[in-house]
Design brief:
heterodimer, A: mainly alpha, two-stranded antiparallel ribbon, B: mainly alpha, 2 domains, disordered N terminus
Chain lengths: 98, 435
């Protein structure tokens, strides 16, 4: 008999690293997306620290707030990486691919 | 009939062609039914969390799962040459698993699957199948036929390790997800995890389809080979693949709502962030285990992930009594299925009459369990279960309303407390205590 402890530890490490990586990247994507929302003036912060709806005059129509586009692009990149992880998972699942 | 139930042991091994056909038909029918129970037993592994968080509507979720299981079944071509994964000393030098044993083992597996479904407990379908086969083999070929060392390494140790590793992975993933998306001032975008959940759950579903339909295909193919209906080097026949794929997809579509409820809201209240982290961990753990060669049970991994996700969010409670029941079910799955399998195998030894008794009694028990599930009024089954599950698992809106109400209560309580404090202070001031 004898349990394949090496195999078990390998599985554990790979599972931890891959799951945490995907979750981390996707979470960062969401965070960047909400940061972009904030920069775009989707919310206002009142004096008491609570969040309210955007004020009518901000942002001015036709202007782009600095950084919004960059944040959105970074978020999209994160989602793309998560998508690649999903594709790699499908590649692993489908036996015909390897 | 008289001539067949004769005392000569050799006669049993050389049953006439008619009987072989009967046993083959019985095994195929029962194997397909096992595939069906396997499907609805394991819908919850993938779809409990997205249903609970509202990422997918219940009907949509089971439909997606059914389609992915169907696709997965067609993708899996390599069928295991040994149905018992070395638990039974098969092959040269060991015992030959006869169709009767497979039949008895399947009865044990199906009956135990039905019982755990009735109790809403997620238990491993493969362990039920192993258990049934082991019981049947012990009665049919003696205690020596079971490889106990393999039993320890294939079933018992992984049963301890699967939930622990999954819970650990999921705990870390949940912590990371909450830490990264924490925004004390601005609204966070955790609702976005619902979209992610659709993908992670679908992956778990697809992986399940490729693994589990294959098991039944193996059982049917080995029976066909044993009965001489096909040659050993022929591989799986196409109608077997189609039948198994349809059986598992239909089972998945039927949906084990009881088990979905247990995993979705019975263990802990799952939120989108947790659901995403849990399913990502389940998918990662299952893929790692199936590609690095340390077999872990899908059911146990996914239950463990949900517990880990529950531990990962501050302020969430885990129903440890439910978790305990699930763990107990895992550990008695194999012996219980073995007991039923042994009983069925004992009856099957009577010969053709025994097989018929087995089939009739087995069908009666399954029907009885199904009717019993209908009788419980608070736990409706079958047709109306969809609505029940949809109601039992809170919808997003209801959850939000509940939370809003709770928050309003808390604000009201704090306001009352403050006003009382202010009154006290005023009174103290009047008495000359604090100017």
């Amino acid at each position: 008999m004898g349990i394949d402890w090496f195999g078990f530890v390998t599985v554990a490490i790979v599972a931890v690293v891959s799951a945490c990586f995907v979750v981390l990247v996707y979470s960062i994507g969401l965070r960047l997306w909400s940061a972009a929302d904030t920069r775009a003036g989707k919310y206002t912060v009142k004096d008491d620290g609570t969040v309210g709806p955007a004020t009518a005059g901000f942002p001015q129509p036709g202007t782009v707030q600095p950084g919004v586009r960059a944040f959105r692009a970074l978020a999209a990149a994160c989602f793309a990486v998560s998508g690649l992880a999903v594709l790699y998972g499908i590649y692993l699942i489908v036996p015909q691919f390897h | 009939m008289d001539g067949r139930v004769c005392p000569g042991g050799d006669r049993l091994r050389h049953l006439p062609a008619v009987d072989i056909t009967l046993i083959v038909v019985l095994v195929i029918a029962l194997a397909l039914f096992f595939d069906f129970t396997n499907g609805f037993h394991d819908t919850a592994n993938a779809m409990a969390t997205p249903i609970a968080t509202g990422a997918m509507k219940p009907k949509v979720a089971v439909t997606v799962a059914a389609v992915l299981n169907l696709v997965g079944a067609f993708l899996s071509t390599a069928v295991a040459t040994s149905i018992s994964h070395g638990l039974i000393n098969e092959g040269p030098g060991g015992v030959a698993i006869s169709p009767e044993m497979i039949f008895a083992g399947l009865i044990g597996a199906v009956v135990w699957n039905m019982i755990t479904w009735l109790r809403g407990l997620p238990s491993s379908s493969s362990h039920a199948l192993f258990g049934g086969l082991i019981g049947a083999a012990i009665v049919g070929a003696g205690f020596d036929s079971v490889n106990y060392a393999a039993l320890l390494t294939v079933v018992i140790i992984p049963a301890f390790l699967s939930p622990v590793i999954a819970a650990l992975v999921s705990l870390l993933a949940t912590r990371i997800a909450y830490r990264v998306t924490r925004r004390p001032v601005f609204p966070n975008e955790r609702g976005g995890f619902r979209i992610g959940q659709v993908f992670t759950s679908s992956m778990v579903s697809l992986a399940h389809g490729t693994n589990d339909a294959q098991k039944t295909m193996g059982v049917i193919t080995l029976t066909l080979i044993a009965s001489g209906s096909q040659s050993a080097d022929q591989g799986v026949q196409f109608w077997v693949v189609v039948a198994c794929a349809l059986a598992i997809a239909l089972g998945t579509y039927t949906g084990g709502w009881r088990i979905i409820r247990t995993l979705g809201s019975g263990l802990t209240e799952i939120r989108a962030t947790q659901g995403f982290a849990a399913e990502a961990s389940t998918a990662a753990t299952i893929l790692a285990s199936s590609h690095l060669g340390f077999a872990l049970s899908t059911t146990q991994v996914s239950s463990g992930s949900i517990i880990g996700a529950g531990l990962g969010r501050r302020g969430s409670k885990i129903q440890w009594s439910t978790a305990g029941k699930i763990v107990i079910a895992w550990f008695i799955t194999l012996p219980a299925a073995a007991a039923v399998g042994a009983l069925a195998s004992g009856i099957a030894r009577l010969g053709i009459g025994g097989l018929v008794i087995d089939a009739v009694v087995g069908a009666a028990v399954i029907l009885g369990l199904y009717l019993w599930s209908l009788r419980k009024p608070h736990e409706q089954a079958s047709a109306i279960e969809v609505d029940v599950a949809a109601n039992a698992v809170f919808t997003r809106k209801e959850l939000r309303d509940l939370q809003r109400k709770k928050r309003a209560d808390r604000v009201a309580a704090r306001r009352a407390e403050l006003s009382r404090e202010r009154t006290l202070r005023r009174m103290a001031g009047r008495n000359g205590g604090r100017r």
